[in-house]
Amino acid sequence: MAIGESVKRVDAAAKVTGRTRFASDNTMPGMRVAHYLRSPIAHGYVKSIDTSKVEELIGVDAVFTFEDVPTVRFATAGHAYNLEAAKRDVEDRLLLTRHVRYHGDEIAVVVAEDDLIAKQALSLIEVEYEEYPPILTPEDAMAADAMELHPDTQNSALPSSCLPKNVIGSHEYSNGDAADGIANADVSLEGTYQTQFQHHCHMETVVSWAYMDDTDHIVIESSTQIPHICRRIVAQALEMPIGRVRIIKPPIGGGFGNKQDVLVEPMVGFLASKLGGLPVRLELTREECISGTRVRHPFKVKVRAGADRDGTLKGLEIDVTSNTGAYASHGHSIASAAGSKIAPLYPRTPIHYKARTHYTTLPAAGAMRAYGAPQATFALDGMMEELAREIEMDPVDFRLKNGAVAGDPHPISGKPIVSAGVIECLKKGREIFNWDEKRKEYAEQDGPIRRGVGVACFSYGSNTWPVAVEISGCRMILNQDGSVNVQTGACEIGQGSDTVITQIAAEYLGIPEAKVKVLQTLDTDSTPYDPGAFASRQTYVFAHAVRQAAEQLREKIIAHASLMTEVPEEKLGLDGDICGPDGMRLSLEELAYDAYYNKFRGGQLTSEVSHKVQSNAYSYGCTFVEIEVDIPMCKVEIKNILNVHDSGRILNPQAATGQVHGGAAMGIAYAMSEELLFDPVTGKIRNNNLLDYKMPTCSDVPEIDAAYVETDETTSACGHKSIGEPPLITPAPAIRNAIWHATGVKVDRLPMGPKELFVHFREAGLLGLSMEKVGARDNVCD
Question: In this protein, which residues make up the domain named Aldehyde oxidase/xanthine dehydrogenase a/b hammerhead (predicted)?
Answer without folding.
Answer: 17-133
